[in-house]
Structure prediction request, 549 residues.
Amino acid sequence: MKKSPLQKARAAYQPKLPIVLTGAVKAVEGKPTQSVANQEEIHQLFPNTYGLPELKFEKNPNPSAGKPVNVGVILSGGQAPGGHNVISGLFDGIKKIHRDSRLFGFLMGPGGLVDHKYIELTSAIIDEYRNTGGFDIIGSGRTKLEKKDQFDKGLEICKELGITALVIIGGDDSNTNAAVLAEYYKSIDAGVQVIGCPKTIDGDLKNECIETSFGFDTATKVYSEVIGNIQRDCNSAKKYWHFVKLMGRSASHIALECALQTQPNICIISEEVEAKNQSLTDVVNSIADVVAARARYGNNFGTVLIPEGLIEFIPAIKKLIAELNNVLAKNADETAHLSGAKLEDFIKGHLSPENVETLNSLPANVARQLMLDRDPHGNVQVSLIETEKLLSEMVGNRLKEMAKAGEYDGKFSALHHFFGYEGRCADPSNFDADYCYALGYNAACLINAGVTGYMSSIRNLVKPSVQWTAGGIPITMMMNIEHRNGEDKPVIQKALVRLDGAPFQKFASQRDDWAMNTCYIYPGPIQYFGPAEVCDQPSLTLLYEHKGK
Ligand code: FBP
Prediction:
């Protein structure tokens, strides 16, 4: 494979492991844990893996000789920078346990386990992918791993290959499935451990014990670079309003981090829209007010950051989606045979009048997306909804009304951008390269410790990577019961932006200034080589969260 000079230089980068993981380790048990909510229900559903203690690794002065271990690895869900480093860390970790250990990669996500599609990951393959972005080493997929027959098919191939541990690299849904799989294998004494790793650029898989999901750092740095470039252009030409939608299908962490990095004129935070019970019109009016206020000073330009998941957080639309999910789940057999207008009529016939009204108030293409397109986990595919265009169109209309009323006298010309896929496979930043390698290496240590149903946890992340700490967190500890697709289900609680949290507070304290005065920051591209303050800084979200503690 031909490589660029930067690719060659990156291939030689040796991720820095936390000091504690550089030799043999022993697992020190903390107190037994409880789920974040619905303790009794979760305990009943996970009798074998509930209440396990947190684990922290410490140096082991008297290690015993390790035995070879065969491990399977799965990449699940959307790509996130650093996945290849999790796999290379895992590979190096199991080879450290014993040089005859073997790693099998299941192809194209959890489906590879069920369909018995795999490759053995040898050191020649692994070396091609160290410190690279993407998930192309084995591919990823969104097959939902939740049924007993899928688990049994998975066990068949594990037995055939002598696999005694599976590592599932995924977001909240995939790690929920990892917990269910761990519980099932434990309950039947299958002899297969299951370990999760926290992945998602969205940043919404985090809690007290998981400080951030991998990929968030790199993806937000890529988006911030491009937003900065747009802001420079915008401030040079002074004639466009740029509406930038950013990935993050539920939480607004990506938009918030990019706002902290680049200081745009406006950034919408979905969680705030919900908390203030705002309607779509309220959001539009708030943007139009800033456009008009800037126009009064001759500034007919600006930037607006919009989180991808906004639509789902507008309370009226959220209610509509909840009912749509129930209707679709309860009538799965009937709706499977319908399409187009017939399906839309069927759905509308089963909704409450209030929700039909909300649905009818939306542009036809948005209404269609909400009604029809779901991913295998039942999520609305918000990345397909063009919120940036919807908002700029509505802002344009509102400005016309304001102009008629003598409240606006400016020019409004909008350009649209959607940044998501551009950042998901970027080569990992030094932070993500180190973090991911440590997560994978640490997963090998958890396997060696003989545990199951744990997520690999690396903490103390605002310190230099050698000072990070390592351990394992029982996945059941992160769970609660939520109503999904018409049923109550145990799931990992999603971490939304906290309005009382330090990152949002920092943003809220400065946004009025950013709205009126042009305070853009131009962060520039990710740097891999150079001074630590340029190359190794973690995200501002992580920094402020730590300072706020
Ligand atoms: P994960 O939660 O699986 O990490 O994926 C997140 C994400 O990148 C979202 O930000 C985006 O809405 C979605 O994936 C897009 O999904 P797809 O890759 O299937 O188009």
Q: What stands out?
A: The pocket of 1,6-di-O-phosphono-beta-D-fructofuranose is lined by residues 77-78, 80, 171, 200-202, 247-249, 308, 382-383, 420, 424 (CB under 6 Å). The chain has a mean pLDDT of 94.
